[in-house]
Write a structure and sequence with these properties.
It is elongated, with a radius of gyration of 26 Å. The chain contains four helices and three strands, in the order βββαααα. The protein is an alpha+beta fold and 80 residues long. The protein has one domain (10-78). One of its GO terms (molecular function) is structural constituent of ribosome. Part of the 50S ribosomal subunit. Keywords: Ribonucleoprotein, Ribosomal protein. Belongs to the bacterial ribosomal protein bL31 family.
Length: 80
């Protein structure tokens, strides 16, 4: 392997949206830097259950309500 081509791998502190702190090793930033997360498993809908609330409505039902008056009605289609 070539010397001096790899980024520095060092320890930083990661702070979650709840304020919890974790120490981890990374190539991000400089040694001792603090990374404050604005999206994590506590705030993102994929982990907090928000996505389930959205899918409970049903995509087909939502589509039908949105485009109910769009295009030809069933009566207009019968007259052809």
């Amino acid at each position: 392997m070539k010397a001096d081509i790899h980024p520095d791998y060092h320890e930083i502190t990661v702070v979650t949206t709840k304020g919890e702190e974790y120490s981890m090793r990374t190539t991000w930033g400089k040694p001792g830097d603090v990374m404050r997360l604005d999206v994590d498993c506590y705030s993102h809908p994929a982990w907090s259950g928000g996505a389930q609330k959205i899918t409970e409505r049903g995509a087909l039902d939502k589509f039908s309500k949105r485009y109910a008056g769009f295009g030809l009605s069933a009566e207009a289609g019968d007259k052809k």
